[in-house]
Amino acid sequence: MNEYFSKLILAELAKPKYNPSRSRELARDLGVGDKDYPEFRDTIQELLDSEKIIRRKGGRWGLGETGDGKEITGTLSIARAGFGFLLPDDNTLDDLFIPEEKLGSALHGDKVKVQVEERCGSDYRRTGRVLAVLERASPRIVAFVTPEGHARPEDPKNPFDFLIERTDLKFSSTDKILLEVTVWPGEGGEPSGKVLEILGPAGDPDTETAAILHSYNAPGLFSKEVKDEVHALRRNLTPEEKAERLDLTKLVTFTIDPDTARDYDDALSFQIRADGTRVVGVHIADVSWFVRPGTKLEEEARERSTSIYLPERVIPMLPEELSNDLCSLRADEDHLTKTVFLHYDQKGERTGYTIHRSLIRSAKRFTYGEVKTLLEDEAKAAEFGRDDVISSLRSLHELAQQLRQRRLDNGCIELELGEYKIVIDENGHASGIEKCEHDFSHQLVEEFMLAANVAVAEWSANNSLPVLHRVHDSPGEDEVESLAEFLTASGYPFKPPFRRDRINAIIAKTRGKPEEHSINLAILKSFRQAIYAPNLDTGHFALNFPRYLHFTSPIRRYPDLHLHQALDAVFSPGADKLPKKLKKMPKKSEMKNLESLGFHTSGRERRAMKIEEEVKDFRRLELLSTLDQKDFVGVITGIRKFGIFVELKDYFVESMLPREMLEKKGFSTREEVPGKKRHADKGGSAPGFHLGQEVKVRVVEIDLSKRLCELEFVGLA
To answer: Residue 210: inside a domain, yes or no?
Structure first.
């Protein structure tokens, strides 16, 4: 052990103001150069082995304090293979490995107390033993009915069967049910529960969607109290309330949305001043005028926090009477809005902005396809008959492309992952997959929504307004090093640190190639998750904005609605415009609950994303099951020692091909570098694979009830 490095490291970690750092960050802070880094890293490993330091969350180092026998609490995450990890309540601690035989009766998602035990594995992580279950994840589980009449949880992470208590409900061994557990494993007696609901035949689309929703405890119908409040909402403004709003009903405004949209919460307008200044109006439905703090309606919106979008329907944050009627900016109707006027010079640089309470009257409801046609086809534009609207569309398009180019030149990272829509037929079954276009008509709207969000974020930060910002931190050191290994192995040499220009160059090089999806997905996975937090220091990494928040979708996102409520609180009586600087700053006490609100809304967003993805995965599998075709081309998306992961082209169904199957076909799970000559290992190793490589596979079995697809390896494509 290098004694100098050892003393240096321990002294740094012992400092009261030490900020837990990773190895390279620590080396930079201590002035250790690249030449000495390998010895510095070895010293860290020796300090870890001697238990003088510990590995904290995210590979950060701290002084040793979690030795054998220490008890810690956290949430249990169990893998399909049977073992688990403790996610400690103390988020500075690293995850703790729990072998299957030491899980006891604990189940996935339970809050547990764990005793730290011996080290094991190549990275010398400590293991633990579950001492007690402190709180069950949920008293309700989705289960199959077994031929013996027991309930078997559909989640393979829950290995216990439950006795079904007597019930008058009629069900069969082909059904899935919602079970409320009355006796948990380890509590004495046989695990058992009562049937709350029969979801339907396993494998049926309605059943599987209901199972996914119940497994995440997704919201159901709105309560009578909420509905009563909505029915009582007042539609008309008093003269005094109208006087507090900027009347924009004579201004040419319009909405642009997908052709299937039912709520229209944003509208655009364009004006040009005598001095050449271009003024874009971003008009957002004033949902907070209807949804007031302290009401049951507001409480329900906060609890849901976001709308959930399924292929066949939407689980809304707000009742449809609000989202599709009162707050929807339908054409030829007066509607309440909050407006951000963005001022631009001829170079596309923003020169100013103002924020208003307003009243608009949309002239036209456009779809993206209609806007594309009008901007591409002069004859169609002439037939439209509204030169003022066409002129505004053309000016907005030109400016949007300027703003987009400025964003890209500034280092914004835009991944090419593509979006696909599952087509549902009149019988409720998946009938096809369509690619969602993201052409210049979509970009026209997107650029001004981003710009409005940035402007309101800047105003909020400058005035210390207590609101939730959209925070996206830069990738961590470990994530960047893993990404570098992945990209280099895939034939795109890359070394840390993370540089925007180099990443964007790789994204450009892979465009249109077979490995494009896997490379873009790997870059995305290296990113940290964006969250909601009252944090002004981090900004938004991917967009490269120092200040950013969500303002433009208060119908479907609670953070946007909360922001609108905060703006309502600081408008001066009788004023329709926010000042550049508030005379009276909000009290710091108003920040009190923002962190917990950010944690809640971020969690609800993640829940919605998981639900949406699982339902889409099932629908893609359902579509695949209807095809006579059995042989497909797939793209390798992951390579592990135990096998490779393959995603079927055009259907986006992913499955794992086990190592044993590949070895029988003369292949190994060794990862290769594309374009390099293959060298056999000692003993004549079989050829391996590389990410993005195309292979031929055959569908062996599709089990819709378990939402699984089994593939057979045929050969190279």
So the answer is: no
